[in-house]
Amino acid sequence: MARAMLITGGTRGIGASLSRLAVEQGYQLCLTYRSNKDEALRHVDQLRNSGAVVKLIQLDVRDKEAVEQAFKAAGDQFGQIDVLVNNAGIVAPSGRMDTFSASRIENIFATNVFGSIYCSQCAVKQMSSRYGGKGGVIVNVSSIASKLGSPGEYVDYAASKGAVDSLTIGLAKEVADENIRVNAVRPGIIYTDIHRDSGDINRPDKLSHAIPMKRPGQPEEVARSILWLASDDASYVTGAILDVSGGR
Ligand code: NAP
């Protein structure tokens, strides 16, 4: 039977690219979106027109109860989720950290950190041999910001991705003998709409000079790394954090 992959924020940016490539590899998909319903429906229609099995769920990953309901719905359709990609994430306008409001910081951590933890909790309960599951893979989408710190841009975002790195390392060890692998990718500057939320949609091209490879990345380049970590080719890889950042 085809493996089922749940991608949070799977209808735009890196998540949308990943879903297209995952379908080519024969995955059945459960995609979640938060607010861009029209774009989500368009994306899912395209995938279904190519013959893919896709379940679409509106989900705000900040809401633990809603996350639990989404995993139940996915489990009801697919038996269990085989691969979870914690991809949903946000930035906020660039600036100095001493100017950031509490609500901004809380929103970033609620989405990037708490959301990834809530989804991982549900995934472990479905996948773990401890609970009768057949195992699985979790891939977290961190950011190279966790290593660089993003001074003058969004130190809060960088810190949230540092937490995602720690989540990856700790959870990987916790469930390593329960047939679950947990890894992360750390994208560098990738062409997606997320940069509009930082205040400059042209940020990737403006920062090309600061990237050793002298170009931003394409979402597909991140997606292919995620697919490798999810695959059996990475069967002895867990707790790993893979930089996909053009050398940054
Ligand atoms: P994007 O194009 O802005 O897409 C973000 C996705 O996350 C959207 O599908 C959005 O849903 C979803 N989302 C946002 N808040 C959510 C919430 N509270 N609950 C559920 N879903 C939510 O961003 P992207 O560039 O593809 O980013 C994907 C991941 O890569 C993020 O974790 C980001 O931090 C990471 N990353 C990106 C870059 C880059 O340069 N692009 C670099 C490093 C790391 P809606 O469409 O419905 O709003």
Please summarize what this structure is.
45% of the residues lie in helices and 15% in strands.
CATH superfamily: NAD(P)-binding Rossmann-like Domain
Poorly predicted tracts of residues:
none
Described by its quaternary structure, the protein is: single chain
CATH architectural grouping: 3-Layer(aba) Sandwich
- List ligands, each type once: NADP nicotinamide-adenine-dinucleotide phosphate
What is the name of the CATH topology? Rossmann fold
Q: Could you tell me the strand content as a percent range?
A: 5-15%
Described by strand count, sense and barrel closure, the largest sheet is: 7 strands, parallel
Tell me the helix content. Answer: 40-55%
CATH class category: Alpha Beta
Q: Estimate the mean pLDDT confidence.
A: 98
Distance between the termini: 39 Å
User: Which sequence of SSEs, written as H and E, runs from N to C?
Assistant: EHEHEHEHEHHEHHHE
Strand order of the largest sheet: 3-2-1-4-5-6-7
User: How many helical stretches?
Assistant: 9
Number of strands: 7
Number of domains: 1
Overall body shape: globular
Radius of gyration: 17 Å
Q: What class do helices, strands and sheet pairing give?
A: alpha/beta
